[in-house]
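Worked problem 6 (solution included).
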Amino acid sequence: MVAVNDSVNVALSLGEKMHALATKLFPICRSITGNGVRQTLDIIRREVPLQIHEVPSGTKVFDWEVPREWNINDAYIKNSNGEKIVDFKNCNLHVLNYSIPVHKKVNLEELKKHLYFLKDYPDWIPYRTSYYKEEWGFCITYNQFSQLKEDSYEVCIDSTLEAGNLTYGESFIPGMTSEEVLISTHVCHPSLANDNLSGIGVAVSLIKTLLAKKSRYSYRFVFIPGTIGSITWLACNENVIPRIKHGLVASLLGDNGAFTYKRSRRGDAEIDVIAEYVLKSRDGRNKIIDFFPYGYDERQYCSPGINLAVGNLSRTPFGQYIQYHTSADNLDFISPASLEDSYHTYLEIISVLDDNRKFINTNPNCEPQLGKRGLYNLQGGNNDAKDFQLALLWILNLSDGTSNLLDISKRANMKFESIRYAASKLEECGLLVQA
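Solution. The predicted structure is:
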């Protein structure tokens, strides 16, 4: 990452800007509720327009209830000499997320009941939560665990769990139509870079780009805590749901793995077809997998009563890289290059989606004369011109209101960009109208 100081004005690449945002957000202790989420959303709001919503604890959201709000000030374990052997201020992963407050002395046997570690990765701290069961605990390295001796230990978790709010952020970019594309990313994890500061960074960069464009669709970005956040958003926005025609869950976008796209529950939605087309055209290593009801917030958006066309686009999927939910998912694990590549992949999918229209040929009785409209190279001999002419003929032949531009692109075995450009020229001279 390029260092920036006050005396030197260094131009950062897009990927470096996203990594810099992740660096700013990394130290914050986030959870599904609390001031960590607010602080995170406040930083995002300095980058892009963002409306912040508060939903009170106890609010009924379908079969769930918004939980009590959790906040934490400090936590530690001290030995009998008063030495801190575990310190939340050194790493916020050290505390079982959503731990209830505790301050007491315990022996080693009792302490071990509240410790979490990874024996196979003795230098790493695991990330663990207890959202819906009142518990307290510490996450430590196995090396720390193995050094514990019979002693009297002071354990302190200075936290609160009380009535408050669930907080989420929303950025809405109006388009030429009221139909919407939903981009959802979770903001509930503490110091984990790939999961999901990477998703936040890509979403923020996409918002900046779309704010400067004129788009057909309206775009709605939601920054929510995982699971309970999407459930709460859906319960509070039932009037919006019918307008959402396509969507993506943005997560795990900073590692160096190939992309994996998880289809929507529908399996053949337009977003599924477009994501597959873009990923396969970009890199043969990219994978497409079918929907399954486990994972991130796509499982809420794709629940049977909601059934939105929302897929999940990540790099290495959750649980399939060893650093997942550990302290090894740090700022060194994500790279500016991967973040920037993720941004461009998302943007290409969005661009195809926004331009993937159906047309009607206004002169369907035999081929129209293209030469008199300046669309046909009578001299020939130019391969690019021949490709352009072939694209024109394919579009005219298949534009009966049933095929979209991507359908035509695939049938013609031509790049979408070529078909899109040719369609724009036919529309300019009145040979096509939108269906």
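Discussion: The longest strand covers residues 152-162.
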